[in-house]
Amino acid sequence: MKPQLSVAGALFSWGKSLVILLAMMAAVLPAQATVYEAEQQRIEQFFPDAQSISEPEGDYQVRTLRKGDEVLGYAFQTINVTNIPAYSGKPINLQVLLDPQGAIKDAYMLEHHEPILLIGIPEQKVHDFNAHYAGIKADQRVVVGRSSDSNAVTIDAVTGATVTVMVINEIVMRAAHEVAVSLGLIDAGASARPKPASVREDVYQPASWSELTGNGAIRRLHLTRGQIDEAFKGTEAEGIDEASPETAGETFIDLYATHLNPPTIGRNLLGDSQYRDLMQGLKPGEHAIAVLGSGDYSFKGSGYVRGGIFDRVQLRQFGNIISFRDLDFIRLSDVYAEGMPGFSEMAIFIVREHVAFDPGSPWNLELLVRRQTGPISGVFTSFELPYQMPEAYIERPQPTAEELAAIEEANRPMWLNIWYQKSFQIGVIVAALLLLTVILFLQDKFTEKPHFLHWLRRGYLLFTVLFIGWYMLGQLSVVNVLTFVHALFQDFRWELFLSDPVIFIIWTFTAATILLWGRGVFCGWLCPFGALQELINEAARKLKIPQYELPFAVHERLWAIKYIILLVLFGISLESMMLAEKAAEVEPFKTAVMLKFDRQWWFVAYAVFLLVINVFTRKVYCRYVCPLGAALAIPTKLRLFDWLKRRKECGTPCQLCAKECEIQAIHPDGHINANECHYCLDCQMTYHNDHKCPPLVNKQKRKKRDKKAPTSADLIPVVQVVEP
Are 329 and 308 in contact (CB under 8 A)? Predict the structure, then answer.
């Protein structure tokens, strides 16, 4: 029997796996088809003349759009270029279309996992936001909101999804820049290129060849025949003209390069007269580069004689290729630097003004080596000689205050830019939390003045609803808890949580107050939906609307509902975070707070239903349904202090606080359940009230009786009667 059970179990397990696999394929294939269909529609919309679309090519999987042989544009998905996590912790994938000039034609969102877009803000608002990228070049700087950089392109954020659209901006512009550079559509450094430096003509000191090579003013590239053979391995030219083992170490070329404009270099190398003539012949913005070589290989070759272009040497700066023609070439024969070795060929090449050459930025001299593989075919390989001008020979322009601010802003992490943009809101939130901290630490003093504390609390709850909730959208959610838990076990990154400063600050404060006071500080003071319920119920009581409470035995058992909901949501999140985010709609927070009731009618009806029940029984949702409250109650067990004071008479015989507690967090035996307490401090106001708290009232009565009772001095004197 056991083998049969084992086989049956194996078949059942295999069948179950097959069903799951088929279900996953059934879910994934339609999703992939939808993405592909969206891609094709956007391409047809923005490139209607495209006759062919290539297969994805290169590291970034770019597709080329053509009309015949003419290239119309390029298409790619950002997920293949950059993997920046959004607020959900997962990347957003967009298709970006570029034209041949490196300008964005379209940026369309294909896939996301953002909670606010899944069950809150319509995706169309994000599509409308993405439409602003049309016409922006990939090397421009785009900022969401305001910027101190006058050259930056600014786009307004989407209310309620600021973090998401800031991440989208980072993804679109970074991916577009990377792809455009790889395709040669834009200059790699154009967007961050510094202002060009100038050569200091007043700096000169005598220097020998060894001194100039020692300080980096003259740079060297030495190649042996063996190194050249190694470079051609794996190509069609492998094995052609290879050196023998005995000659592999011989010099193929010994190449030197330098910038002649600085007087210390040019005058010591060329002599005063030749240097002066060279400088006088240069136009403003032109630069002279000396190239000197010896060995078997000629860096000049003979191509410049036939076609007027030097095909063996070129410069590269900022990704731009600078090639030379015969008109840019000056023969160099007389050199005067002390200790200079002999060279078989020397040349001066002129970098013309239109190139916008920067003497203060690095550049490379590229040596192209060609091997013939056929009558007219050959294979090229290149070697680079890097050059950086010594700082003593150049002067860099000082950036303006505006430029410094723009550079600082551009180099800041995205989350830090968000904090700068929301500095006012952050200041108000921090001030409000400091006030709440003072109230909590001095609660005994405040509760001695119940009238003042009642109005202070009402004002704070109004601030929580209007500013924290409806203005700053600072409503915490169980989705935040699930995201944090998953991040701890997967790929925790602080910047993910720092991207929303208000949520981060409130979460940090909530975590600290849980250790000191329990969950009640957040639920009773900082939850916008909870504050809205409390204010509505307060108004209902003022209007004498009847209030109803459940028997404590029933009420106590209903507490378990929110913990069950939390466990279900957590279990769903283990399978699919997206499904968990949708199931978290059991929270009415997005409807009532984030979107201010601007949603489909069934979401609004659910939130209104909870608020209507709250008119008759305070905070029913918070007490029995809220999974966020359940999540905060679990670590409340770890709180370090018990700040709420009780007397031995509380519960037996006094039941006043238990009856007055409007969320029934006080047990009949008198103890306060910190897991359910919302820290309204009503019980503490009663605790300090001499005219309300029964033990204090009895104490006052005893004092009054003691005052009325006669003392020994007040005894009636004995009168002695004397008979006559």
Answer: no
